[in-house]
Amino acid sequence: MDQTILIYIILLLAGLLLIGIEIFVPGGVIGALGALALIVAMFLGFKAFEPPGGIISALAIVLLTGLGTALWIRFFPRTSAGRHLTLSQDGRDFKSAPPELKEWVGREGIAHSTLRPGGIALIDGHRVDVIAEGRWIESGRRIRVLNVEGTRVIVRDIADQEKTS
């Protein structure tokens, strides 16, 4: 077998394998390398085959890649692996913060961890991720919820709040 054809086959297989891996390892780099391998294989096909064979090879790579992508999009989400990797519902109903967080403004709790400035507090028996306004708050200190901005629950040490009032 001619060495050019062997390299052509290796690049084709490597390109397809890298694009397949990209589906499970996101980031874009592996998929870009796979696409580059397919492009290099396409140009190498012109050298490996007689004049009509290079054109047929390039067209086959383009058409089969498009067909494979279309079939993948059509059938992969219905497979077991596809159901694990895709959303089961659209994102129109997703909310950034539960509405009940707004109700916590003014409530008091205890800093469960040292708030530097973020940490955990116990408010009405719930563990809540909070952010201290101003300075750090030691664990065990009484805190009050000042504001809720999206999912950020802003708190202040009650002793500090009483000093400024």
Write a structural description.
This protein is of the alpha+beta class and 165 residues long. The chain has 2 domains: 3-85; 99-164, Nucleic acid-binding proteins (OB fold (Dihydrolipoamide Acetyltransferase, E2P)), CATH 2.40.50. Helix content is 48%, strand content 19%. It is built from 5 helices and 5 strands, in the order H-H-H-H-E-E-E-E-E-H. The chain has helices at residues 3-24, 29-48, 51-75, 80-85, 158-164; strands at 108-111, 118-123, 126-132, 142-149, 152-157. A 5-stranded mixed beta barrel has the order 1-2-3-5-4. A hairpin with a 2-residue loop joins strand 2 (118-123) and strand 3 (126-132). It is elongated. The N and C termini lie far apart (87 Å).
List keywords for this structure.
165 residues; alpha+beta; OB fold (Dihydrolipoamide Acetyltransferase, E2P); 2 domains; five-stranded mixed barrel; 48% helix
* Number of structural units classed as domains: 2
Tell me the distance between the termini: 87 Å
Strand order of the largest sheet: 1-2-3-5-4
Secondary structure category: alpha+beta
Task: Output the number of helix runs.
Answer: 5
Tell me the radius of gyration.
29 Å
Shape: elongated
Name the average pLDDT: 86
Work out the helicity level: 40-55%
Low-confidence stretches: none
By DSSP, the count of extended strands is 5
Order of helices and strands: HHHHEEEEEH
Question: What is the beta-strand fraction?
Answer: 15-25%
Give a short account of the largest sheet. Answer: 5 strands, mixed, barrel
